[in-house]
């Protein structure tokens, strides 16, 4: 889709674009492309057209921030008349009788829910596949679209929808955004936190532009002010490519993308220096225990014999950690104190989003738990600790790898810093512009 969500909503509000015609065009595009991309678990064709007709008749159409905009929703949240599968055969299939808060806000804003996007089972891994299909990276289909919001990332990067909802428990919005060349933002713990994963998970937005990411986040969070992206002012920017705990080497192209962004920020007048938070062993251990224990809590209410073998092993370890009392609030609080100490001297932290290059798209759900865990731990260490701290963080496109894959960088701010992150990202969008879609990047 060439037009942005911001542009589409403006055209619908002005009476220049019919929501029904727009929805039908989007559905036709999904029908043509998604058998390759693998973004959707379910496409709501008839329901979406009916919703578009209802939007077109609304008396407040001219005031709706997402008027007629087709939006994809991650397959983890309640939608009236649908069920959330969480990528699992063990999930209940009883349809919901009401919308979740975020879906209700999308509808109130005039959005049209065109489908539910594919996720890995229980949203555990940063690659999205299952018996029903594989979410592929639209830039390079032999690679994964990431996870766990991989279906949402694939849908937006392929131009099937302009924006998509995601959730992020340990990087699940930012990682696929980085892999697919998108803007993806996870708000802080005081905005849009959802149950599960011990409060680490939050709803977030994926888009091709900062304005669209801000617009969707403003609707999801019921924060209209976030849609008005301002200027960042002069900031103290810390730059680090040191992997938390292991200090494993980061591939050179990922480091070069960070350097490119750091140079752009310095050229814009920001105070830029090399500095790394005191991550420590304990914070990483606190993150990992919750990564295992969170899904195991969810599985308590499921028939575990129906889970994929990799998930069964993950859940067993999570249950053992819970029984041993190793999910401790103190680990989070001590990490929060160290993070606050760091951000007392810095306004924004710039890191790679990924610590390793994406893996190939494959039937990862048929591979061992160890293979999945190793791939997850290698790619995700820069992202997850900010879920543990409850800090807002986002991924912004920065460069291209020689193999054609997009490369993203992560921006982190202190609690309440969503507007600051969006302002910095918008400045980078002007200083270091990126192609919105693979077709544009090929020209």
TrEMBL record:
Superkingdom field: Bacteria
InterPro entries: Amidase, Amidase_CS, Amidase_dom, AS_sf
UniProt-listed Pfam families: Amidase (PF01425)
Domain Amidase span(s) in chain numbering: 22-422
Alphabetized GO MF terms: catalytic activity
Coiled coil feature spans: none
Recorded family membership: Belongs to the amidase family.
Protein name listed in UniProt: Amidase
